[in-house]
Specification:
The protein has 7 helices and no strands. It is an all-alpha fold. The protein has one domain. This is ABC-2 type transporter transmembrane domain-containing protein.
Length: about 150
């Protein structure tokens, strides 16, 4: 979610002309990026809280490890998504292009990283590719934290 939210918010500001008005007031680009990261980090913390509460209390998923490590891993992964969203928003000009790129990169990674389909069930060549995907190791680490 953080990839799409970050990318679309900056592209929307650029399309609507809000970003031009901000430039006129003398705001620096580093201040814009920093403020976006703060706002999206707060949203990310709220999302992590909701997901962890739902997973642990509603669905009764056991957590044998430290909950702080689970939250930090989620935050680190979300922060990586925010930076990717910033890259997408700096490359693409229109909202539809940014949305297409975020969706087209997110879903293959989600399907192949081991969340929905186990890595052991994939062909050997595909498994070698999936080890280089950005969500494969965090998913394995999350599974390890929750089960240990």
């Amino acid at each position: 979610m953080t990839v799409a939210i970050t990318a679309l918010s900056l592209v929307t500001e650029r399309c609507e002309g809000t970003q031009d008005r901000i430039w006129v007031t003398g705001v620096k680009s580093s201040e814009i990026i920093f403020s976006q990261m703060i706002v999206h980090s707060v949203v990310l913390i709220i999302q992590i809280s909701i997901v962890l509460f739902t997973a642990l209390h509603v669905y009764k998923i056991p957590c044998m490890g430290n909950l702080i490590y689970v939250a930090l891993l989620c935050f680190a992964q979300g922060f990586c998504g925010m930076t990717f969203g910033l890259v997408v928003s700096s490359i693409f000009v229109t909202e539809i292009n940014a949305h297409q790129v975020t969706i087209s990169t997110f879903y293959p990674v989600l399907l192949l990283c081991g969340i929905l389909w186990p890595l052991e069930g994939q062909p050997l060549g595909m498994r070698k590719i999936t080890t280089w995907l950005p969500m494969t190791k965090p998913v394995d680490a999350m599974r390890g934290i929750l089960l240990k």
